[in-house]
């Protein structure tokens, strides 16, 4: 399904449907502008499809904005993922696929949503390195990384993270001496989780430490990661990165 997006100088986005049939929207979805772009496309498509109930509309979001804000962190603060989910639900897509959501709460709040698995990209990194031990950085990552380790027949070393005044405190539950380690997580923001964990893995004798994250945001702290991590594997769900330190798997053009 072809559509055209026009952006006005004041920031307004408008859409035009260029052909008939089922609608498939593939978008990063990592900005409020993207959400309004999706809404414009769906509104234009709905206007053409009021009579035809045969056609379906599907949405694929590669990096859902606000996915970490999956609760009200403090009284009097907004619950941002709930607002975003309300907005997407109002568009009434028949299916919504979300690549590697931060938690199951995104899938619970967004109607007709299911996760698009990150397994194929972890497998590519796993094969490129050559049978590393998988490391899950925190309780949130443990469940999905455990499932991936089972599928790959790989060893898994869980670690636990608590944040003290925002700074991650790490404890590793396994032997990594002389082993190549692949940390697997959903996203890197400032990267402190991974610099601390990689430093601790190396202190415990790990040979090399690699990082896989689906959503490579690297909003700050990117250069510091080079001190303790040997190479990063990620998708381009959040942005395209040109750096020899990073291997990016393309999910969106
Ligand atoms: O690159 P960094 O800035 O270190 O952030 C990345 C980490 O933060 C997120 O978890 P978060 O601490 O938000 O998990 P939570 O939902 O359990 O609080 C994410 O799953 C990573 O583990």
Automatic annotation (TrEMBL):
Pfam families xrefs: Pribosyl_synth
Domain of life the protein comes from:
Bacteria
Record keywords: Glycosyltransferase, Transferase
Gene Ontology MF term list: glycosyltransferase activity
InterPro entries named in the record: PRTase-like (IPR029057), PRTase_dom (IPR000836), Rib-P_diPkinase (IPR005946)
| Protein name per the record | Phosphoribosyltransferase family protein
């Amino acid at each position: 399904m072809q559509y055209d997006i026009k952006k006005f100088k004041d920031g307004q986005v408008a859409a035009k449907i260029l052909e008939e049939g089922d609608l498939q929207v593939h978008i990063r979805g990592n900005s409020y502008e993207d959400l309004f772009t999706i809404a414009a496309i769906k509104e234009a498509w709905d206007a053409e499809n009021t009579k035809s109930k045969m056609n379906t509309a599907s949405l694929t979001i590669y990096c859902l904005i606000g996915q970490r804000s999956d609760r009200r962190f403090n009284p009097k603060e907004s619950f941002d993922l709930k607002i975003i989910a309300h907005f997407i639900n109002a568009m009434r897509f028949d299916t919504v696929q979300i690549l590697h959501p931060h938690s199951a709460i995104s899938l619970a709040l967004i109607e007709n949503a299911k996760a698009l698995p990150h397994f194929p990209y972890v497998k590519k990194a796993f094969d490129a390195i050559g049978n590393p031990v998988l490391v899950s950085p925190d309780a949130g990552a443990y469940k999905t990384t455990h499932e991936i380790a089972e599928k790959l027949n790989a060893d898994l070393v869980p670690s636990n993270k608590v944040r003290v005044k925002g700074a991650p405190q790490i404890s590793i539950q396994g032997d990594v001496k002389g082993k190549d380690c692949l940390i697997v997580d959903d996203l890197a923001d400032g990267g402190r989780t991974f610099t601390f964990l990689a430093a601790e893995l190396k202190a415990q004798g790990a040979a090399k430490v690699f990082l896989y994250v689906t959503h490579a945001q690297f909003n700050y702290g990117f250069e510091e990661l080079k001190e303790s991590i040997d190479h990063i594997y990620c998708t381009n769900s959040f942005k395209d990165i040109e750096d020899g330190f990073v291997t990016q798997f393309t999910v969106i053009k």
